From TrEMBL:
<feature type="domain" description="Fe2OG dioxygenase">
    <location>
        <begin position="136"/>
        <end position="230"/>
    </location>
</feature>
<keyword id="KW-0223">Dioxygenase</keyword>
<keyword id="KW-0560">Oxidoreductase</keyword>
<keyword id="KW-0479">Metal-binding</keyword>
<dbReference type="GO" id="GO:0005506">
    <property type="term" value="F:iron ion binding"/>
</dbReference>
<dbReference type="InterPro" id="IPR050757">
    <property type="entry name" value="Collagen_mod_GT25"/>
</dbReference>
<keyword id="KW-0732">Signal</keyword>
<keyword id="KW-0408">Iron</keyword>
<dbReference type="Pfam" id="PF03171">
    <property type="entry name" value="2OG-FeII_Oxy"/>
</dbReference>
<dbReference type="GO" id="GO:0008475">
    <property type="term" value="F:procollagen-lysine 5-dioxygenase activity"/>
</dbReference>
<dbReference type="GO" id="GO:0005783">
    <property type="term" value="C:endoplasmic reticulum"/>
</dbReference>
<dbReference type="InterPro" id="IPR044861">
    <property type="entry name" value="IPNS-like_FE2OG_OXY"/>
</dbReference>
<dbReference type="InterPro" id="IPR006620">
    <property type="entry name" value="Pro_4_hyd_alph"/>
</dbReference>
<dbReference type="GO" id="GO:0031418">
    <property type="term" value="F:L-ascorbic acid binding"/>
</dbReference>
<dbReference type="InterPro" id="IPR005123">
    <property type="entry name" value="Oxoglu/Fe-dep_dioxygenase_dom"/>
</dbReference>
<protein>
    <submittedName>
        <fullName>Procollagen-lysine,2-oxoglutarate 5-dioxygenase 3</fullName>
    </submittedName>
</protein>
Amino acid sequence: MDFGHLVNSENFNIRNFHPDLWQMFDNRWDWERAYLHENYSQSLNESNKIQMPCPDVYWFPVFKERYAKEMIEMVENYGRWSDGSHMDTRLESGYENVPTVDIHMKQVNYNDEWHEILRAYIQPLQLRVYDGYFNDPPRALMSFTVRYRPDEQPALRPHHDTSTYTINVGLNRPGIDYQGGGCRFLRYNCSVVDTRVGWTLMHPGRLTHLHEGLRVTAGTRYIIVTFVDP
Ligand SMILES: [Fe+2]
């Protein structure tokens, strides 16, 4: 017999755009059913091989398409994109060395939720692919949604990230929502251009993985980026 389940509606904040996105603390079961990719847990199974599109660059299905769609709508509804310049008052230093047109998770009041995602869903994946590295909980000072488009910021020059490893979540479809785009790792002359919605790239942030954001020639490309353990 299935008697259903109880929903905790105490903290359902209708001021948030797509308030279900915030529900992982109060209604985890519903949140996972709505947003976690149906194949997420396959990556945790030791007998399954993890896909590695470039050397030491891995990717995993983490989020459903619904999550990607609602995150895009939520940040676009907020709408206060940075201007892509070096001066960034959101940062303690006030200076961003490799600026993008972006919105920080903190700005849309999604910092606690995003850190919970890093702890509960991303860290277990990291433990599978970078054996022996464990920092609990994963720390992140920089988590944001980036927007690439031809008439705004279309690409990003080669750089290292301020991270031990970087998370890069594809939110929309190459060849349909935008043309071009992707991430190229210069040392290996290897690019990931066949971005999959809700799939998450994980790559080392420094030293070996100098990388660039490839040019978007039409449409708008959205990704979520997090620098883990700066
Ligand atoms: Fe980067």
